[in-house]
Specification:
- By secondary structure, this protein is of the alpha/beta class.
- About 15% of the residues have low confidence.
- Helix content is about 40%, strand content about 15%.
- The chain is elongated, with a radius of gyration of 34 Å.
- The strands form five sheets. Strands 8-9-15-14-13-16-17-18 form an eight-stranded mixed β-sheet, with helices on both faces.
- The chain has 19 helices and 18 strands.
Amino acid sequence: MAAGGVSLEEARASLALYGKGLCSRYLQAKPLEEAPSALANPWRPFPFSNGKEVYLPSLLDLYADRRDNWRILRLYASAQVGQWEAGTFDRPQKEGGLPGKARRQPSGDSEPLGFIRRFLELFPMPALAGEIFLTLESARVISHLSRRYRGLAADLSWFLPRLNAPLEPLDHRCALWNLFFDLLRPTEAPAAGGYPAGALEAAEGAAREGAHLRDTLSCTASLYPILLPLYRRLQEGFQGFPAADEGFPGLEAPLRRPGGKRPSPGGEGEEAGAIVAPQEMGEILGADFVSIRFPAGLGEFLRPDILGHRLDAEETAGAGRMQAGERAGGEGEKAAGEEERRLRYPEWDYLARGYRRDWTTLFQLRAEERCTAGSDRLTGGWEDLVREVTRQFRMLRYRECNWRKRLVSGDEVDIQAAVERWVSLRCGLPPSEKVYMEKRRITREVSALFLLDLSASTSAEITEGDHAGETVLDLLLASVAIMARALEQLGDRFGIFGFSGYGRDRVEFLRIKSFEEAMDEAAWRRLASLRPMKSTRMGTAVRHARRLLDAEASSLKLMLLLSDGYPQDFDYGEDRTDREYGLRDTAQALREAEAGHIVPFCVTVDAAGHDYLRRMCPPHGYLVVGSVEDLPRELPKVYLRLRGG
C-alpha cells in the first residue's frame, strides 16, 4: 500500500459511525469488487447501494496525500448512505388491506430495491432504464446532500473536476456520464453537452432542489426514448453485444412483455421504444410515497414449518398471549396470558459504543394455564432423578442446620450447661436454667430466577436416546420442574419466567411463577403449557430479569439462563446474518447484572455454544451441556455449585 493510501479495513469502523450519523442506519461496507456491475458500473461516477451494503474500494491510493484519499472514500460512502436520507427506498402507497378495512399499504417487497426493480420491468429494455435511473438518482442524492451539508459540498466541488473529462457520446453510457456532471454543475457554469438534444431538459428535474424519488422515476421515463437510439446503435454496431450487460440486479433483459413476446434488440418500428405499461406507470408516479422500515430478514429459526405463516406481529396470538376480554376470569382476576406490564429498555450498540435509549418494548405477560396435567406431565419418566435430586437438597438443608445451645427449652440437654448448673448449685451460686439445646437451620437468603428461552428453535425433536421424539423444550421444562421440586425441600426463594420476541417492539416475558407465589397447581399448569414461540432477543429479557432480582432482599441472587442457541432476532442489528450485535448486547446486559451483585449463569444445549458463550458470558459463567438429555442431571449440580452448597 502506498504511504498515503487508505484501506477499507482501517476505514470500516469510522465509516460505519459516519453512516450511522448520516442516515441512522448501519450499512455493511463491502469491497467494490463484490458489487454487481449494475450497481458499481465504471461508466457511472459513484457506486450505488442496494440498501443494505455500501461498496467501497479495498484500497484507495489515487493521491499521495492521505487526506485526499479519505475525502474520496467519504464521498463514496456518503453517496450511498445518503440514499436512505434522500428517500431512494421510499415506496408508493396503494389501497388494500383486510376485508372490511380500508388500509393503505406500501407497494413493494421486503427488499429495498424491490419496488425499483418492478418499476424498471415496465420498460422494454430494463437494462437501459436501470442505467438511466441509477445515474439520475445518484445525481439527485448527491445534490440533496451537498445542499444540506457544506462539508460534503466542498468535497464534491473539489472531486468532480478531477473526474469530468469530456466524452464523445458514442453510446448511452457516455451520454449519461456527461449528463451527470451537467446536472451537478454550478448554476453559473455553462453546460458541457455531449448528449442528445433534449436530454438535459428531460433529466434536470431529478437534481432540482426538493426533488423526490418520484421525480427521478418520471425523468427516467422521459429520458428513456431519447437515449434509446444510442442504445440500439451500440447493439447493432457490435455483434454479440449483451442486451443488458448484467442489467439491474435480479432482472433478465430483455424481459418478456405481458403478451409473452420479446422485443427484438433492434426494435420493430415504434413498438420497441414504447413503454410497456404506461397506465400502471402513471398510477405509480401519481401515488403518495412513504418511508418504510425494511427488516434485514426473518429470524433464523422463524421457519414456516415451525410457526406456520402467521408471522405478522399484529395477527399472531403467540403462545401465552391473549388480549384482554378474550377469556373470562374471576372478579378482579387477570386472565391467563393477559398483559401485566409494558416496559421500555435500552439496547447496547457496540458499533456506536453507547446505548440506544428506550429501544425495545417488553411485555410482561402471565402464562396461560392450558394444560390440565401439570407436574405429572413434566416429570414423567424422570421419577428416579426427582427422588435423587430431592434427597440431595434435603441433605443440604440438614447440613445447613446447627446446634443452638443454652436454651430454656429444647430437643436435648446441653451437657456442658448442665454440668455448669450443677457446679453452681454446689457452690451456692444462682444456677442457670438454660440447659437445653436444639438443631436450627442457619438462615441463608437465596433468590434464584430461572429464565427459559422459548424461541421457535426449541421445537426441534430429539432423534436419539431414551427421549427420542421429545422436543428440546420438553427437556428444558423437565429440568426446571425437577429443580422446582427440589427447591421446595430446600426452602430457597425462586421464580420461573420465559421469554421470546418478534422485533424490538415486541419482546415477550412470560411469568410462570413469581418469587412471591407458591409452586401450586396453577403454576405447574402454566409451566406445562409453555410452547415454542418466536425469536431470542436475549439482552432485553436479561435486563428485565435483573430488574426483578433487584427487588429481592436476599444476600445471594442467582440468574440461570437456559437456552438452546445464540441471541437472534430479525432486527437484532442491521443484518440478521451478523451475530455480533446480539452477542454484544447480551454480554453487556450480563455485565449490568453482575454490577448489580447478581450472579448470572448461562446453560445451553447448543453443541457450538463454546464459540459464542466464552465471548458473551463472564469467565466460568456458562455451561455447554453435551447432550440435551443430560440437562436435567446437570442443572441441579450447577445450582448447588453457584449456591455454595
